[in-house]
Amino acid sequence: MAEKLEVERKYELPDDFAMPSMIGIADVATVTAPDDQRLDATYYDTAGLRLTSSKVTLRRRSGGNDAGWHLKRPSGGERSELQVPATAKQRTPPAEVAAQIRALTRGEPLRPVARIRTHRVEQGLRTADGTTIALVADDTVATESLVGAGVAQRWRELEVELVDGSPEDLARIDEALRAAGARPSASPSKLSRALGPDHPAPATGSRVKSAGRRAVVDYVRAQRDAVVALDPEARAGDAEAVHKMRVATRRLRSTLRTFAPLMDASEGDLDRLHDEIKWLTGLLGEVRDSDVMAQRLAELLAAEPPELVVGPVAARIAQLLAARTAQARRRLIAGLDSQRYITLLNDLDALVAAVGGPGRVAKRELRHLARRAVRRADRRLTAAVNTPETTAGAVGGTAPPPGRLRDERLHEARKAYKRARYAAELATPVAGKPAAKLADRLTDLQDVLGAHQDANVTADLLREYGMHAFGERENAFTYGLLHARQAEHGRIALAQLPRARRRATRRKVRDWLS
């Protein structure tokens, strides 16, 4: 299974089009002999064309140099392509391909929706040293739609795919082709043209007239879309995708809580949806936390002088965390493969539709709900700082001394500020820069509290691993040393709390809430 970023351009050709000489264009020194290919591709989708609606294509192609299953998805301004070999009799997508699109298909069966036969004459554009800049394919295309009216069509087009060239090379090739009469294709793909009137209409922007309601539905939709888009990379083990997918679920949970009065749903339905999102967040969190902890502990060990690392500490930690991470990944994949996950995605679709329904949401309502979230976080932080069992000995504006109850309350305050930050993010389209500024200040405050919490969690894990090492008759000195270091990191983090708190509570960053 191989995946690559596909950078290509498609052109419509007039009847009298003649391929211009490309020698000298973008350092082209030679053009390879024509490679005559006969390609036969069957495209697959659900009955409702869920893949096509999301600009994703899945085909099984025979002939040419890359026969097999091809899955193409949007990737930035270009498209990524996953290729998997196909057996001679295989007519259903292999499991590894089906898993990559499950968040889109929602488990619905895939069926042929179009057949496209292409007579391709391909030539390579090469530099003097033999580097292939791009491939130019002159395609004569015959298509048959297998849905709706079953339209059959035939046309000619030119396709240029960048190989080892640069975007600047592609721009110069584009200029030469346009000068010869080629025009950028008005159709995004062969499949869209083959389906004709049955091709799904492109998605339009939010049609909600109320600015306040539009802010809510756009925010919820963006998080839902992020979950779906990041699903394939999260399944593949991409740490950044897992992190971003987790953030999207956190934003959804926060929005359900903060802006529940604006949701067109019962409290029970919202509570159930919140719990289901929390379940997915938890699965993602187990993987993410294990990844982060592995990197954090590796960096802590690397920072210690060799003489202070006594025994097989690095190997022991790597072994324990690897087992923990593997278990977490198995649970995540099982969750993503479950019907429960599909039901959650469908419920999120329903939520987007409901939130984007009729009815006006006044800007003052958004401000009121955001203000309530901010004040709740303020109260939790005040309660944490003033925890009775730990305030003895605190001096003026300095951070209070450590204590388990206080640490738990600080963690709750951190989560509350995260929710307040997301509320400010959501309100930014209607409140503008002041809301964005508050979101930034709350992020800084949240980061201080997060650094403190991370130190506590790391210290607890080091104590656990130290006890494990002791039980295995290994020297636990280094675990104790690192535990002490984390306690100090926690104190250093809290020393920054007063300043971060002052900056986040200044009137000029909160006036817009009034």
Quick take:
The chain is of the alpha+beta class.
Terminus-to-terminus distance: 55 Å
Radius of gyration: 28 Å
Any guess at the CATH architecture of the largest domain? Beta Barrel
**Global structural class:** alpha+beta
Residue share in β-strands: 15-25%
**What is the element string, with H for helices and E for strands?**
EEEEHEEEHHEEEHEHHHHHHHHHHHHH
What can be said about the biggest beta sheet?
Answer: 11 strands, antiparallel
- How many domain regions? 3
What is the averaged pLDDT score? 91
Shape field: globular
| Low-pLDDT stretches | 390-397
Provide the CATH superfamily of the largest domain: Hypothetical Protein Pfu-838710-001
- Determine and state the CATH class of the largest domain: Mainly Beta
